Amino acid sequence: AQKVTQAQTEISVVEKEDVTLDCVYETRDTTYYLFWYKQPPSGELVFLIRRNSFDEQNEISGRYSWNFQKSTSSFNFTITASQVVDSAVYFCALSEANTGNQFYFGTGTSLTVIP
Amino acid sequence: DAGITQSPRHKVTETGTPVTLRCHQTENHRYMYWYRQDPGHGLRLIHYSYGVKDTDKGEVSDGYSVSRSKTEDFLLTLESATSSQTSVYFCAIRNADSLNQPQHFGDGTRLSIL
Q1: For B51, which residue in chain A has the nearest alpha carbon?
Q2: Does the pLDDT at position A101 exceed 80?
Q3: Which of the four pLDDT bands, split at 50, 70 and 90, describes residue B2?
Q4: Burial of B27 (0-12, 13-18, 19+ CB in 10 A)
Q5: What is the C-alpha separation between A4 and A23, in angstroms, rounded?
């Protein structure tokens, strides 16, 4: 079974619109870690944020914000006032304390911001 | 940026030939990983290493082998390449000090098997 589900395969928005990328995870561990990565058209994978399972406080970094909700097993990523430079594939990932060596990645959401 | 170098960056080869990809790190991190990225599948783990000469299989390990004789180098070998192994391969490293550490990725190797 997929441990991390990113149901949105592709999203297109017009510049300056807000957009939310969904991430739903599945784990039986009580301690786990969630991550978001960005892969721009140039191909490299860039780490964006990490969240621990015991810290449900949402986080904002500039135009980026992350909403972690254990009740719905979701770790969603919102980009406010999107820009063309936000066009990329975004991956959500899960690491469990009991299998800390491995990361489980979602299949990614391709975001296109249209000027 | 994390000091990770993948080589080669691009390679085209023929079915049946052996191929070795190299991942070199300058961070002295304990954990190293090899992934492949294919459309519709995201990143899939091939093999990983948790120390020198300590490796384990990932989700898609068939047809691949790895070796880690030094902390800084993690090699991925396709003993007899097949067209289904055409993909983009990423190496990643992770600091073992804490479980909440992210993986950091190399720039990838684009491999085409004709």
Answers
A1: A101
A2: no
A3: low
A4: middle
A5: 7
> How much is the pLDDT for A17?
97
Instruction: Give me the residue label for tokens 């990329």.
Output: A88
Tens-digit pLDDT profile for residues B9-47? 999 999 999 999 999 999 999 999 999 999 888 899 999
B93-96, long-range: CB < 8 A, 24+ apart: B93/B2, B93/B4, B93/B25, B93/B27, B93/B29, B93/B31, B93/B32, B93/B33, B94/B29, B94/B30, B94/B31, B94/B32, B94/B33, B95/B27, B95/B29, B95/B30, B95/B31, B96/B29, B96/B30, B96/B31, B96/B50
CB proximity B108 to A under 8 Å:
yes
> CB A107 to CB B41 under 8 A?
yes
